[in-house]
Amino acid sequence: MSDPTARNRLDETASPYLRQHADNPVNWQPWDEAAFEAARERDVPIFLSIGYSACHWCHVMEEESFSDPEVAEVLNEHFVPIKVDREERPDVDSLYMTVCQAVRGGGGWPLSAFLTPEKEPFYVGTYFPKEAKRNQPGFLPLTKRVAREWEQNREELEERADQWMSTARGELESLPDPVDVSGDSSLLDAADELARAADRDHGGFGRAPKFPQAGRVSALLRAHHRESATDTRYGDAVQHALDAMADGGLFDHLGGGFHRYCTDADWTVPHFEKMLYDQAALADLYVDGYRLFGDERYAEVVDETLEFVDRELGHPDGGFYATLDARSAPPENPEGDHEEGAFYVWTPAEVEAAIAEYADVAPADESDDFLADVFCARYGVDVAGNFEDGRTVLTVSASLSELADDFERSEDEVAAALGAAEERLRVAREDRPRPARDEKVLAGWNGLMARAYAEAGLALDTEYAERAADAIEYVRETLWDGDRLSRRVIDGDVAGVGYAEDYAYLAAGALATYEATGDHAHLQFALDLADALLAECYDDETGALYETPESVEDVGVRSQDVADGPTPSPVGVGAETLLALDAFDPESGYADAAGAMLERYGGRAETTPTSHATLALAADTHANGLLEVTVAADALPDEWRETIGGSYLPHRLLTVRPPTESALEAWLDDLEVASAPPIWAQRDAVDDEPAAYICRRACSPPVTTTEEIAEWLAEFRA
Questions:
Q1: What domains does the chain contain, in order, with CATH numbers?
Q2: Least C-beta-crowded within 10 Å: which of 143, 176, 194, 582?
Q3: What is the 3-state secondary structure (H, E, C) of 643-712?
């Protein structure tokens, strides 16, 4: 049998990240049994590199090392090189990232690990330059040293690998002691710690690099809703974070949407990749910010973000693509090397040229010079720049009132000029070389995005709910076989098993889409996904929720994904969704499973809420119970939608059922439900007019006016 590692096999894969490396002289292998068997037969270590397509330093390491024949010669001769797309195999990434964090005190991508032929790590790191510089070891001398150590001190390396693997297994597989979750919510205790951790100078959390941390802000938002009459600390921290992220370089002020994180503490310069999951989390967060604070700027951020997602990441058949790269060719040299941020940054000269060239796009009463001056003043564009080579990342640097004073115009005149300038620059930017797009459609990420669209559909515009439905239907038709999920589809190629996050996120998205549309097909899908989540990833004896189904056997460790990371905790999202779905099928055991998960993991939310905010939110819902809003009508009346969907209602579960018992019976047949659950039973319309029933452990009488609904929602506020 020929050696499969004698050539680069990544051209056989569909992942855009892996295919980016298909032309490397390194004989890359996918994570599969053929590569593992070759390592065992050749008796050489594995070099594992994990990254994703939009990762800036992954690109840098490829250009410096993986495209270099000298490096390739060492890797090919002394190792089996394996490439993994972390977005396709989060379980593989989780294992070796845990080792890296334990050994190095931190991690990141690209993740670089040297493994025994049995896949146990004995050396780990992240990005390495080809040659040593700035106190970083060089990758080329490192590979030579590791190869030499393998030959001369193999037993010592294998002992180290065994120790590291035991450490990782203990951290990822051990079960925390259960806690009692039958008492009052500990959300306010968590919020106190989150408020203390907030950056009072710049908003958000931590120093550089600065990540959005949507889960933490959501927990503070819920605490503010509960305590705003007596304590403004939580709300102040929320608004500071929302304003800072919306005004700084994290947000794309011309095209909408958010970059992944900022490299500095004051939200000025981002890493420019745009991830679908960030758009989902932040759009959802700003919807709630708008609901609670009524700030129109937050609604504008939602609109601009969702318009960006549909335009730039929307699949023509309904789903959403995964990412946009951080890098592209510079506008002045479209055939040149790709540079980070080239699509997004500006110089004063570029602003002036674009405004003059695209004058017909947005005619204005003011001169081109005035438009350019207003734009540059608004967004801080000057000759010094705040980025590389005198270029500027756009940030809101002056308010409309300040601009009006500076330019001696009315605010309306300034706003009109600014709008014309922005439109011209937006069109000009479209002519620049574009960042690459990773066209994976991931089940779980699409669930998160659908949930954000659904919530915006309730709070802002019903068309957003229709877009959520398109995404859910696409994923159901493409990745769901009736019993189990696949992880992703790329250009028709379906692959990978569904993970806990896929089931949990997609169930949450389907449920939210049902709430926003009233289409019970989405509810049925959510129920089916909940069943599959429990069957595939849940252990009812221990209350553990595992990252992977039991059928996945090529990693060696079965992780539990409890903390918030770039995406929210699947345990937290799963538990909160199961609590809601229990209202529709009380015999399913969903509430029991959610309670067991929270008992198993709830202690982590109490001791480290900064890492487990999503779990703390789920525990709060469990403690306070759902706010059930059942409407008996053919459809949710528009005025009621504004009152219910436009209000900040944590724990809300909105359902529309047919107005009569006879119509409900036919509906239940479609859902294959024998009898109406309590949330629907005996909740009819009143005198042929829509009626609402609002419950939290106790229920309102049937109410038929918007004013009554608002009163009862306030009555049952948690």
A1: 4-172 (3.40.30.10), 210-325+438-624 (1.50.10.10), 344-430 (no CATH), 627-715 (no CATH)
A2: 176
A3: HHHCCCCCCEEEEEECCCHHHHHHHHHHHCCCCCCCCCCCCCCECCECEEEEECCCECCCECCHHHHHHH
